[in-house]
Design brief:
This protein is of the alpha+beta class and about 180 residues long. Helix 6 runs antiparallel to helix 7. About 35% of the residues lie in helices and about 20% in strands. The chain has a single domain, classed as Cytidine Deaminase, domain 2. It starts with a helix and ends in an 18-residue tail after the last helix. A hairpin with a 2-residue loop joins strand 5 and strand 6. It is built from seven helices and six strands, in the order ααββαααββαββα. The longest helix is centred in the N-terminal third of the chain and has 15 residues. Strands 1, 2, 3, 4, 5 and 6 form a six-stranded mixed β-sheet that branches. Bound molecules: zinc ion (2 copies). The site of one zinc ion has 6 residues, from helix 4.
């Protein structure tokens, strides 16, 4: 992995996923490898984040979901019901490691060692953090294959799916730069 993968993932050539077949598979495999390390009893997730710009030599970073050090997932009903709050999400772990200028993030769920489709985007903690960190694109595995979202649309879809208010900055005004 490392630099070799970073170069294999670049360059980004647009939003047509059919041009990304090889790069997608590389990223997907890294995310699967990360998910396989997850100690979560409910759901094993992996994320890879990378800089898809051709000049980048930064290594991709990965994360898997799980409780923080000193805490455990025991698979009880109480643990499973609260997993979303008890486990650190794979996206957040990858975000904490990712350099500021990374562009792309791919999330995958595994079951019995194999990738399975994720549901519709549904975690506002992750979607808002991905967008806030300046990511441009989010990849999710669905029944139809890998789907590419702009980071902004990923957040919009998440808000809609969670029935949360979608409140936009008025045109012509700039929000403070969070970075
Ligand atoms: Zn969990
Ligand atoms: Zn999340």
């Amino acid at each position: 992995m490392g630099g070799v993968v970073a170069r294999q993932l670049a360059p980004w050539r647009g939003t047509d996923v059919t041009t990304m077949a090889i790069d997608e598979r590389e990223a997907l495999q890294l995310a699967i490898d990360a998910a396989l390390k997850s100690p979560c009893c409910k759901s094993k997730r992996g994320v890879v984040a990378w800089d898809a710009r051709s000049a980048s030599r930064e290594k991709p970073v990965t994360g898997f979901n799980g409780p923080p050090p000193g805490f455990a997932c025991d698979g009880t009903d109480a643990c499973r019901a609260a997993c979303g709050k008890l486990c650190v999400h794979a996206e957040i772990r990858a975000l904490m490691l990712a350099p500021k200028d990374f562009t792309d993030l791919l999330h995958v769920k595994v079951r019995a060692g194999a990738p399975v489709p994720s549901g519709a985007p549904s975690c506002p903690d992750c979607s808002k953090s991905i967008l806030d960190r300046g990511f441009k694109r989010v990849w999710l595995l669905h029944e139809t294959g890998l789907r590419l979202y702009s980071a902004e649309d990923f957040h919009v879809q998440t808000l809609i799916n969670c029935d949360l208010p979608l409140i936009r900055q008025p045109d012509g005004t700039d929000a403070p730069d969070p970075t």
